[in-house]
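Readers outside the structure-tokenisation community will struggle with the description of the input data as it stands. I therefore recommend that a typical entry be quoted early in the introduction. An entry of this sort, consisting of the sequence and the corresponding backbone structure tokens, reads as follows:
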Amino acid sequence: MAKKENKFKGYDISTQAVHTGVAYDAETGAVRRPLHMANSYKLPDDLSKVNYSSTDLLMYARNGNPNQHWLEEKVAALHGADDAIVLGSGVAALHALFWTLLKTGDRVVYPKVSYMAVYRLFHELFNRKFGVETVMVDMTDLEAVKKAITPGTRLVHIETPDNPTDGISDIAAIAKIAHENGAVLSVDNTFASPLNQHPLDFGADFVVESLTKYINGHGDAQGGAIISTTWRRWTGFAMKPRSMSALSSVPSMPGRSSAVPSPSLCGWNASMRRRKKSQNGWNSAKTSRSFPIPACPATLATNWPKSR
């Protein structure tokens, strides 16, 4: 399926969250597109013209489905990005991105405070089994970051706010350090969501979101996403790898391990709960500082991401 122009670019993000990736059903005129549960799709009669690596061609459910593509339009729009890849979970997105970028002998710098799955992927899988050097650093300490990111570092991965302590890292400063050393910067934006923060605007090369959290917001679906505007520069592909399955030589890539999401999990509107929760948290912090009560001691510190 060809990438669609974002007709709502420039509108408020709440408008884009509702309308991007949504359209009338072409066959019936229904105001909502249907779920496409087919596992295979009709190919052209002349197979000589088929590009089996194309991100526009629907072939097999393991490689992608229409509902997934429409959700990708929405996620990319929320980040102001060229494109996105939607997968079955946030960890699937991390897994796919790391496999795409890393090889034996590479060096990775990532936070001391990380989501447990990130630690396990880097330390237990990439380091122990595949010879990738992994270095943990306090990403809130820029001097420590400068020392850790050396020439030859392939990937710098950060979370901001981090999970679970809500520590804040300076995306722009770390992006500058990473790029000066020839490294890629990926940012896990799950705790901020695109409603609060756009890491690509601060120099990140890739953004990862667990859609299960604030983008869904209702506790009833699971998903993950990779968002970027620089697929060619960092992956070597002129177009985004369809769910990274273009890397078919790697047996555990999503195209081989069915990490694409079910069509039934792709009909989301990004939740506005994150915006309200942010405002409530800010109001609570201000209130507890000025009027502490026994049940809510005075707030000692407030971590707040940079404006998007």
Summary: Residues 273-290 form the longest helix (18 residues). The chain is about 30% helix and 10% strand. Residues 242-258 have pLDDT under 50 and may be disordered.
